[in-house]
Structure formats: C-alpha cells, structure tokens
TrEMBL record:
<keyword id="KW-0121">Carboxypeptidase</keyword>
<keyword id="KW-1133">Transmembrane helix</keyword>
<keyword id="KW-0732">Signal</keyword>
<protein>
    <recommendedName>
        <fullName>Carboxypeptidase</fullName>
        <ecNumber>3.4.16.-</ecNumber>
    </recommendedName>
</protein>
<keyword id="KW-0325">Glycoprotein</keyword>
<keyword id="KW-0645">Protease</keyword>
<dbReference type="InterPro" id="IPR001563">
    <property type="entry name" value="Peptidase_S10"/>
</dbReference>
<dbReference type="GO" id="GO:0004185">
    <property type="term" value="F:serine-type carboxypeptidase activity"/>
</dbReference>
<feature type="transmembrane region" description="Helical">
    <location>
        <begin position="30"/>
        <end position="48"/>
    </location>
</feature>
<dbReference type="GO" id="GO:0006508">
    <property type="term" value="P:proteolysis"/>
</dbReference>
<keyword id="KW-0812">Transmembrane</keyword>
<dbReference type="InterPro" id="IPR018202">
    <property type="entry name" value="Ser_caboxypep_ser_AS"/>
</dbReference>
<comment type="similarity">
    <text>Belongs to the peptidase S10 family.</text>
</comment>
<feature type="transmembrane region" description="Helical">
    <location>
        <begin position="524"/>
        <end position="544"/>
    </location>
</feature>
<keyword id="KW-0472">Membrane</keyword>
<keyword id="KW-0378">Hydrolase</keyword>
<dbReference type="InterPro" id="IPR033124">
    <property type="entry name" value="Ser_caboxypep_his_AS"/>
</dbReference>
Amino acid sequence: MSEITPLLNGRPLESVPPVRSYARVHKLPVPPFAVIGVMCLLFGVSLWRGGIPNPQLSKHQAKPIRVITSNGVQHEHFCGDTKQDSGYVKLPNKRDDHYFFWYFEARHNPETAPLVLWLTGGPGGSSMLALLTENGPCHVHPDLSTETNPYSWTNEANVVWLDQPTNVGFSYGPDPKDADKNEDNVAENIYWFLQGFLERHPELQGRKFFISGESYGGHYVPAAAHFISHQKPNGTLAINLQGISIGNGCTNPVIQNPHFIDMATNAYNISFVDPAELPKLKTKAAHCGQMMEACQSQPSLCCDADGYCQDNLESVFMAAKRNPYDIRQPCATSDTDVVQCIAKDIELITPYLNSPNLRKFLHVDERVGDWQLCNFDVNFAFAKSFDVMSSTSAFVGDLLDDGVRVLIYAGDADLECNWSGNLAWLQALDWKGSAYFNTTESHDLVVDEETAGSVISFEELTFVRVNDCEWYHANLSQWYHFIPQLRASCTLVMGRVNEKARLLPAVQAIYGSTSNKLKIKRSLIVLGIVTAVVLAGSSVWWLFFDEHEPEAVAADEFICGDTKNEAGYIKLPNKEDDHYFYWFFEAKHNASTAPLVIWLTGGPGGSSLLALFNENGPCRIQPDLTTKVHPYSWTYEANMIWLDQPTSVGFSYSAGGDHDYNEKDVGENLYWFLQSFIEKHPEFDGREFFLSGESYGGHYVPGAAHYIWEQNKKNEVTAGEKSINLQGIAIGNGWTDPVVQYLHAPGMLDNSYNVTLLDEAAAEQLKIDAAKCAELTRQCQQSPSESSCVEPYEFCVEHVFLGLSANQTGRNPYDVRESCDWVDFGFCRGIPLIEEFLAQDAVHKYLNVDRDWVGGSDEVGNNFIIDYLQSLDNHVADLLNDGVRVLLYIGDADSVCNWSGNKAWIDALEWKGKEAFNAAEEKSLLTQDLLNPNTPLTDAGTVRSFENLTLVRIFNAGHMVPTHQPAASLDLINKFFKNAALA
C-alpha cells in the first residue's frame, strides 16, 4: 500500500490546455444560489461561517474487526471486512501534492463491478464524512467500533472515497504557492490521481467508471468528468467514463439561488414566509438572480451579489428556526447553533479518524496533522476565486451531448441545495435533448406501495426528487441534504439497467403522463439510499451504475420501453415456408396473471409496428432515432404481441408461393402462430386471450377469432392442439361490414367538429356514389370472384374513399380536425421516423431480422381485394352468441371508418341480444388517467352496452384512438380486459 507516482513513460509532464470554457459557462442564464458567504457548502452554504464544533478527542482507539483467513491467519480490518486499500497517490502535475484515498472492493462481483469515485463537497469537505456516515461500508459507534452499513454503495460497485482538493482531510501538499482554487485545478488533479490509482490497480483499467458527489460536488463532479472526457491518451491510461451522479448539488448558482424562494411552499407545510410578504420576496429573488448573472461576467460584482442574496433571501428563511439541510427538523438561527443541529452525528468521526491505530492502518503520512471535516483555507480560496459563484452546468450539457449518463437527485426537505433549483437549472440546460426532457412528464417513484418521489427522464438525463419516507435512521435524521444517509428503510432499486436504460416510470416507469407509477424492484442487494433521498443512495444509485438486468430480463430490453420483451420469428407449420415476425412485451404490472393480447394493424398489408411506435406500444421514436417510453402503452397490464401479418408484411416473409388472400388464411395462420408461441412460452397456456386491432383489423380480428373459436370447439371433441382461452375481441375504427359502412360514408359531412369537408354539389355527388358503391359491393358479396369484385372495389376507392381524401377536402381523412394535403398510413405528410429507425443495423440485430421492413405491402393489398368487400359481421354474431366479449370503439373524427357506419352495422347485427342492445341507454364514458389517479374523471365519449357487446364513441379522436386519446384508451382497454363496467 505504498505511495506511487503515475508513470509518464519517461517523459516529463506536458502542460495540459485548460478545457473549461468560461465564455460558454458565463453566457448561461445562470441565476444564483450557492455561495452566500464563505462556507463549507459540504453542508450547505453560509452556515459554516461560525465554525465547526471541536469535539473532545476520545481516549479510545479505533476498534478493528478481526478476520481469520482460510489458512488460519488473523488480520485486522477497519470498516467492514471486504478487500480495501488506502494511502496516497502523488500527483505528477503538481509540485508535491499527495491525494489520500480509501478504496473498497465491491461486496458482490468485484471483478466486473464498475469503479466509482466519490467526492464530498464544501468546497473543502473530506470524503471520509460520506464514507462513515452516508454511503460507505460502515458507521462508527461511540466506543469507536464500527458496524457494517448494509446499504453501502460498495454492494455492487468498487468505490473510492477521495480527499480533495489538496490539504483536505488526509491529503496534503506543503507548497502554498501551488494551492488549488477552482475547477480547473480539481479536474486536472482528479485525472492524474486516477492515472496513478489505475496503475496501482491494473485490474480496474478499462472498467466502467462513474463520478459521484453531493452539494459542492455539483461543481467538482461535472468539471472532473468534463476534463476526463476530453483527454486523449498519449502515454496515459484511457478512463472508461460512463456517467456522473450528483445529490442535492450546487451546480448553477445563478439559477439555483433565486429558487431558494420556492421552498416557501413545501411538501411539509412548514411556514417560512408570511404570505403577505411573498410577492416582495419574489421580487428580491428575481433581483438576486440578476445580480448573480451580472457577476458571471464581472467578478467584481460577486461580493455585492452574494451579500444581497444572503441578506434578502437566506436570512429570511433562516429566521424560521428550521434546519436548512432538513427543514423537517427545528433548529436555532445562529450560525453556531445551526452547526450544533447538524453536527452531532459527526462527533464520532473525528476521534475515530485521528485514532493512531487507524491512521497507521490507513497509511496516513506523519506530516499530516489531525483530520478535520473541512479545510477553511481551501474553502476561502475557492470563494476568493469566485469558483463558488460560477456555473458548471455547461459541462453537464457537453457530457450529455457525448452520451455520458447523468443522474441528478435531490431530497426535497433540503433548503440550501433544494430540489426546485436543481430541476430549474436542468430545464435551462443547453443540450441536444433539452426540448424533449423539458416536455417529459414527471412520474411517481413508488417504493413498497408508497410514493417516495418523482422521476423525469429522457435519454441519458434523469432527475429524481425524493420525498419523505416512513422512518429514518435514528442518528442520521438531520442529514436530508446528504442523500445516501437517511432512508435506509426506504432503500430501493429501480431496476438494474444497461447503458440504454432510462429511469422510467413504474416500472416506465422504472420510464414514461402526469404521474406514472415508478414501480421499483426491491433486491436482496439493496444499495441504500440511506439518505432522505431514497434514490440517491443506493436505490437510484444502483439503477444508475449497475448494468445487470432484473432476473429473466434480456440484456438489451430497453431498446423500446422498460419491460421484458422478445422479438423474432415463428415458422408456421401450416404453410410451406412462411415466417411470422412478432414483438412481444411483458406487462408492466402483474405480468404473471395479465392476459395475453395480440394486436393486428389493418391495411390490408400494414405492419403492426406502425401501432407499436405510434399508438399503443411501449415507446415512441425520437428525432435522433432513440426511443422514449410511452407511459400509456397497453402493456400497462397486458402481455402484448404486435404481429406482422399476413406474410410479406413488415418483417414477416415467405420463401415460397403460398400466398394469403382472405380471412380464412388469416385465421388459420394466426391460430398456428399462437400454437407455436404458447409452446415457446408455456406460461401462457390457458391464460386469458384477446385479439385486438383497428381499421382493416375489423376484418382480421373477427376472422382470426372465429377460426380460433371453431378450432377450440373441435379440440373439445378430439385431443388436438392447445385450446386457446379466447375471452374477447376489441376493434378500433374497424372496417367490418363494407355495404353498411359505404352507405354511411357521407355521415361525416355532418360532424361534431363543424368542419366543412365538401361543398354542397360535391356532398350530393358523394351520397349518390356511396349508394352505388354499396350496391356494387353487395353484388360482389353474392358471387365473390375477381371478375365480380375488382370493378366495384375500384369504383368505391375512386368515388368514395378518394372523394373524402385530403386532396378533395384539405383535411386528414383519418382525423378531420387536422388540415392536410396528403396522408400516408393515417399520418399527415407521412409516418414519422419509423422507417429510419427500423432500417438501423443495430435494430435489425436486436430484433433478429435480416431484411428491410415493409410498412405497407402492395402485394397483400392486391391479394385481398375480394376479401376487402366481404362482411365479417356474421363472425362477430357467432362470437357474441357464444359469450365471447366484443368491444367496438370509434374515434368520431375519422372519416375512413367513421362512427356512424360502425354504429349502423352493429345496430343491424343479428344476434341473440340485438333488441336489448339497441334499447340500451347510451351513457357518458368517464375515464380515469391510470397514471394520475387523483385527477378528475374525463368525459371521453359515450358508451352503450348489453351483456358481452359494448359500443364506444370516443370524442376528440380520429382513426387511431390510442394516439389521440392515450389515457382514455388505456383505461378503456384495461377495463375491457378485466370485464369491468365502462359506465
């Protein structure tokens, strides 16, 4: 454990150009928050001006842990019994500076676990504080023995706690002329420390690396990470930087200072300000921000700015006699008394670290005096250089743009580095994903069925606000400002995710509306967030750093959504050489009991991936071709398959000439697909099963369900294939009975949106053409053949469908509320991003495909011309008469498969419940936002129901209801699956 100096291959150290762009930093609209007086921001800001209590040094020696090895040799360990290393690395870029570290190997999987560097704030605070009271392997008892911290971040990470800058903690450098004073120094020193440390521990070279910290670590961490990310190895070791995490950090004081006032309204109903004075205080907060911003370009103004913000903001809040680091706790107002309020838990650390036997064990240099929590010379140097007044948020923007992951977490009872200010600077951050992050909705973080906070996440950036929890570690209750320390009982794991993961809501949670529940899995190996910030410590921390997946979850599951998924092919045993492509996603909630549902997009010839990415699937494609979790996915409580069919659609293919032409083919193929899928997934054998789809799915779904129903009847008589537990079908804006629906095509001319689609003459002609089209279609149905059906098909397309096209009406026929000049797959001016996303080699590899995606197959469209004009209403009647549940839901802004046509054919349907259904009362459809259950019910449409048939009209939605009304459609389909009342 002797000290070493990083080698430079025999060459002298070259000067490294500064990487910090002050011009860019100072141009940021950074309002203030941070440095109100000379302080160890480690614990906040101004409070430490009164000094730290000087506890009586105990006469006790630190008590070691005695460990006997397998060969009977006894060793003494301090702070746990895992492999550890401590000592110094001499910095080659400095004159004579020696950085002290205490390193602990991971308790689990140390050979693959990431390397994590922890930096306590201040500036000037020793990281030993965090090690012994927050996220380290042990806590100190009054007799200077230690107990193991089960929530240590070392559970699945190799962690280094580093004392820096020079002369902090046990680190030292005797030359005052070479003192550190800003983030340039911090960043360069940490880089060279890591060079020496990795040379000392070659097993960690190339290992995934993260930098973490809190409070003034909001300066240290971004600066060091930015410097590391810009270094090009030239005789030095490459550092595999993956991400940074900051807890209750001071990063952008210009923005954070004015947000001090936001704590006047807090979750704990603590009164800081007389409501009558709040308007004046807001004005002063704005002026504080203006002064701080001016200080960024004119340092001479910084002292005045600091004084104004302290006198007019912080002093007002301090007068409330609350602990500024945990406002739930009462506290006196004087500086000294405040320190007493927050310092009683560190009284044991000083005697422990100054114990001679521990100093010897740690290889503390004899030239180093007593360990002190905070070095005020360092603190003053950083204040004098105005580092404490500057922003490091621009570094975070650069890191994000380079793909480095960033986690910002904040306990919401902290006043000094409060959650509101942290969120504000993130929302002001200039990076490529800013627009998307700022429009991403917050989702609940739920632990043990209780809401523990909220999460906002987009791509590499995640912000977590952590609320109160049921109880707190007895001796650590004051330290809400220090995330990894307080909420041991609330420790959680948001899921072990890989680089592509997002901290989703709830489980999107564990990504993607107003309050999606972020269900987090507990784990035997909890990395505790012993701090009031459950997420900060281990829980979120684990999610952020660990790359292991939850049990039974494939490695790259997060390419779309956040749940277990599977993609690939099933070769149909009933066909010559047909291979059906599917993408299956497990339910986010209750996957082991949730039903199995297949979705079929229409066309005919449309790929179901169109719906997956744009309607009811687990993710949405972003402009940079990444994905974002879709919180209203139908996978909320259903195991969903999006299936490309018939053959030649999407990624499905055939090497032979065994083409499909009608619903008999569709039904048979889908039945055999299910036989193979259930054989592959026996957990779904006997599970409740539903078929769903839209548009031409009004043919596919009844056709396939009817075939399955018939096969089930046969299987009851003879031992055959697996019986499929068909419970129901759901069809959105379906094309089911062409004769009736063509007749009602003009029904959209009188619509509830007061949109004029055609002039009077064109409207009258459309009515004439629709009647003729219906008659021609009836003739085709009487003797279906190519000769009897092609001409009617062409007439109806040209005179009815095209008669209401965007070219004629100037409106999107799939959503008449939208002005449009041309449409593709229901989207004005084309489908967004799907083709580009699915053309990527990485996506092909993930999906196990080796061919181009076909969004719409002309071959299938041509083959199904006869089928297109046939009616499937009799199939629906058979299903209803046998107790199969049927849901028809129709967005009433669609003119292609409109509301009036769907209502007309279902009203005319001959089945045993016809009269009762037609006489049933039409009621309001009141839907609940499942992700935000505290919001009022929404009047989303109308519903009429009798026994197993339900007809729903959805307001303010077009052809694709899940796209236009995601919350309503999710509640609707969820109730349908559960056979719950809709009105």
